Amino acid sequence: MVWHGFTQMAAYAGNSPITVERAEGREVIDVDGRRYFDAISSLWVMTLGHHVPELDAAVTDQLGRVAHTTLLGNGNRMVVEFAEALAAVVPVDDAHVLFASDGAVAVEQAAKIAFQYWVNRGQSGHTRFLALGDAYHGDTVGALSLGDGGFGTELFDPLRFPVIRTPGYASPDWADKAVACVEANAEELAAVIIEPLVQGAAGMLVAEPEDLAKLGAACRYHGVLLICDEVATGFGRTGKLFASEWAGSDFRPDLMCLGKGITGGYLPLSATVASGEIFAAFEGADLGEKTLYHGHSYGGNALACAVALRHLQLIHQWDVLANVTVVADRLASLLRDHVVGRPGVGAVRQRGLMVGVELDPPGGATRWGRRVCAEALQRGILLRPLGDVVVLMPPLTTTLEEIGLVVEVLAASIGLVGEQDQR
Fold first, then answer.
1. 139 and 47 in one domain?
2. What's the pLDDT tens digit per position in 109-120?
């Protein structure tokens, strides 16, 4: 029996889940042969499509060499090649890469690195983190501490460490308040952590690039480390390879957390990218106290790095970001014409191919998010609710025709659920 994450198993069967047997292109196919357009990119991890021949080949070629070797003290050729390619494109100065297997651990690594950085430099007192309201950084204990609750995490409050928290992107003045907090608490901050441009799990709350730039400048001026959690926004979702790039060339995170789309949805892999300045603070005597005593058995898995490298190459070779821009523009237009302002819709938020449709159910109506997604599933579109926010996160290679069908089904599904509650 599979125990599904973020799922009440007592209600699982009643929610009519699908069981996937295979996938082709941008569709998943269930055990009964029914096809569904994967409009959530398999929880935001798939980018170019399922069963991509070039990515399949990268995995099988590496499998013919070696599947995995430890990075705890030894190297692996494929891991080195991917790290070099990644370091060349991330907006982090003199980048160094520490690998893990999922986004939450990438965040945990960043927090530990930021904390130890100050210890290694002999500067005491930098023990606190500034995080934003509505933030979500993963569900391990450290990541939960940096996040702002939700999803039933209040149960674990006794395990979470305290942070300084300022408003999230739902507040128009979030950046001004964060900057003021940096100015007031610079001497005790280990780092500031943000999800650049989009707070995804909060329902696709969005920020303006100039506000990101403002916070980045304040962190630099006051000597406070900046961690950008790009687990969800990285690898093209917003129309640039990394969402941090929207804030301009001067916006340079000290630490960047990557995951989800890093392998195109093929294998678990994440990374914490540190600047050269951060990395240098950990250099010292062998087995000395400046060592980062942290690592994971499967960190830097060779199979995952092989497909991640090919994926990064294909994003450039196929000019994928150009397609994201075109499809995102059409998506915005379709949402304005068919979803915004219709009964049952409260707000629509979008950055690139990251969309949250906040539903506004009538009084007494329940589970609208789940019900709208269920109606869409019956019409061949796989969506996912975050409460009463329906998430739309199509693959980066989605066509104009496909995005038109997705919005058509979404709008119809909202209408059908509204009609059911009027009967």
1. no
2. 999 999 999 999
Q: How far apart are CA 413 and CA 144, in angstroms?
A: 33
- Band (363; pLDDT cuts 50, 70, 90): confident
Residue 423 has pLDDT above 70, yes or no: no
Host domain of residue 330 = 9-51+319-422
Q: What is the pLDDT of residues 399-421, one digit of tens each?
A: 999 999 999 999 999 999 988 87
Q: What does the angle CA 26 – CA 380 – CA 52 come to, to the nearest 5 degrees?
A: 10
Same domain, 73 and 159: yes
Give alpha helix (H) positions in 102-255: 103-120, 141-146, 174-185, 209-222
Q: What backbone torsions phi and psi does residue 240 show, to the nearest 5 degrees?
A: -120, 160
51-76 pLDDT per residue, tens: 999 999 999 999 999 999 999 989 99
Q: Is 311 contained in some domain?
A: yes
What does the chain come to in residues? Answer: 423
Q: What is the mean pLDDT of the chain?
A: 95
* CATH for 261: 3.40.640.10
Instruction: Assess if residue 3 is contained within a domain.
Output: no
| C-alpha distance from residue 184 to each of 169, 187, 222, 327 (Å) | 21, 8, 10, 43
Final residue in a domain of this structure, among 317, 335, 360: 317
